């Protein structure tokens, strides 16, 4: 028996919007720790990892570990029927092939339940060890989204370089080139507007902008984004989900042949 | 030309 009650139901809608461009089908894993997911895009270049900790739910009951295969577009269709202020409860019984989403309006005058068929999904799960990164950049998520969007109108790839001077995003295309440098800036009114660079050593990596733009669909989940870079590793783009967990994206770099 | 690497080149199956 599984029963997860999330008062801030709109958060689940935002989580779905943050993943469904990258992944079509995924297994949601439910355990005592929380509600989680790991899925790769079809080309195995990018991976999304989600964790919503059990403590973040108003009510969390998960009698035994359960993996539920869902089509994210279908799940999104159902969640879009919930009001933005609705409380969402996810329910499933052991051994059934469906999941129920229950939507309650804040004053309890409307209650809806939507039952969705589950799917068998053969997904590969990658082991991702904790790593030391050469550079970690924290910046406003809206600023990162703006940079990725702007650069993708010029080129297909971005070189992200971190030096003592700041973090530089560069691209080149048929019509020309573009460079955007963000300097460390801690002297802002609000901490979420700061750009903070922790650098062990300079690092420069090339990534496909198409994937980074997909990652920025998570912007409504967090005011800030953390970008962790190391020359030997995929980049990690993390959006913290307040009081609940995170959505992390991993993207393998491009290398010059 | 840049070559796109895949995640399996960095991480192994769990």
List the helices and strands and how they pair.
The complex is a heterodimer of chains A (257) and B (14).
Chain A: E1 2-6, H1 10-19, E2 25-30, E3 34-40, E4 46-53, E5 59-62, E6 66-71, H2 72-79, E7 87-92, E8 98-104, E9 111-117, E10 126-127, E11 135-140, H3 141-152, E12 157-163, E13 166-173, E14 176-182, E15 196-199, E16 203-208, H4 209-215, E17 224-229, E18 235-241, E19 245-251, E20 254-256
Antiparallel strand pairs in A: 1-5, 1-7, 2-3, 2-6, 3-4, 4-19, 7-8, 8-9, 11-15, 11-17, 12-13, 12-16, 13-14, 17-18, 18-19
Helix pairs in contact in A: 1-2, 3-4
Chain B: E1 2-4, E2 12-13
Summarize the structure in words.
The complex is a heterodimer of chains A (257) and B (14). Chain A starts with a strand and ends with a strand. With 257 residues, chain A is mainly beta. Chain A has helices at 10-19, 72-79, 141-152, 209-215, and strands at residues 2-6, 25-30, 34-40, 46-53, 59-62, 66-71, 87-92, 98-104, 111-117, 126-127, 135-140, 157-163, 166-173, 176-182, 196-199, 203-208, 224-229, 235-241, 245-251, 254-256. In chain A, helix 1 packs antiparallel against helix 2 and helix 3 packs antiparallel against helix 4. Chain A is elongated. In chain A, the strands form three sheets. In chain A, strands 6-2-3-4-19-18-17-11-15 form a nine-stranded antiparallel sheet. A five-stranded antiparallel sheet of chain A has the order 5-1-7-8-9, covered by helices on one side. Chain A has a four-stranded antiparallel sheet with strand order 14-13-12-16. The longest helix of chain A is centred in the middle third of the chain and has 12 residues, at 141-152. Chain A has four helices and 20 strands. Chain B is mainly β.
Structural class of chain A: mainly beta
**Helix content range of chain B:** under 10%
Rg value of chain B: 10 Å
Largest sheet of chain B: none
Q: What is the subunit organization of this protein?
A: heterodimer
Overall spatial form of chain A: elongated
List the total number of helices of chain B: 0
Beta percentage of chain B is 35-45%
Biggest interface found = A-B, 24 and 14 residues
Q: How far is the first residue's CA from the last residue's CA of chain A?
A: 52 Å
């Amino acid at each position: 028996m599984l029963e997860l009650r999330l008062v801030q139901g709109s958060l689940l809608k935002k989580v779905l919007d943050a993943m469904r461009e990258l992944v079509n089908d995924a297994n949601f894993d439910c355990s005592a720790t929380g509600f989680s997911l790991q899925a790769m895009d079809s080309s195995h270049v990018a991976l999304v990892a989600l964790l919503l900790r059990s403590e973040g739910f108003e009510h969390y009951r998960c009698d035994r570990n359960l993996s539920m295969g869902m089509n994210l577009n279908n799940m999104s269709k159902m969640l879009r029927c919930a009001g933005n202020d609705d409380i969402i409860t996810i329910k499933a019984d052991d051994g059934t092939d469906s999941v129920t989403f229950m939507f309650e309006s804040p004053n309890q005058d409307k209650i809806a339940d939507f039952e969705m068929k589950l799917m068998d999904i053969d997904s590969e799960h990658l082991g991702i060890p904790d790593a030391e990164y050469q550079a970690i950049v924290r910046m406003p998520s809206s600023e990162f989204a703006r940079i990725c969007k702007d650069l993708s109108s010029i080129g297909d790839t971005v070189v992200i370089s971190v030096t003592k001077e700041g973090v530089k995003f560069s691209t080149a295309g048929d019509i020309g080139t573009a460079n955007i440098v963000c300097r460390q800036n801690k002297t802002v009114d609000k901490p979420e507007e700061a750009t903070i660079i922790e650098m062990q050593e300079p690092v420069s990596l090339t990534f496909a902008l198409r994937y980074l733009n997909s990652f920025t669909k998570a912007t409504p989940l967090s005011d800030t984004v953390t970008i962790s870079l190391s020359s030997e590793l995929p980049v990690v783009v993390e959006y913290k989900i307040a009081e609940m967990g995170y959505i992390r994206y991993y993207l393998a770099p491009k290398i010059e042949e | 030309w840049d070559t796109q690497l895949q995640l399996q080149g960095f991480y192994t199956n769990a």
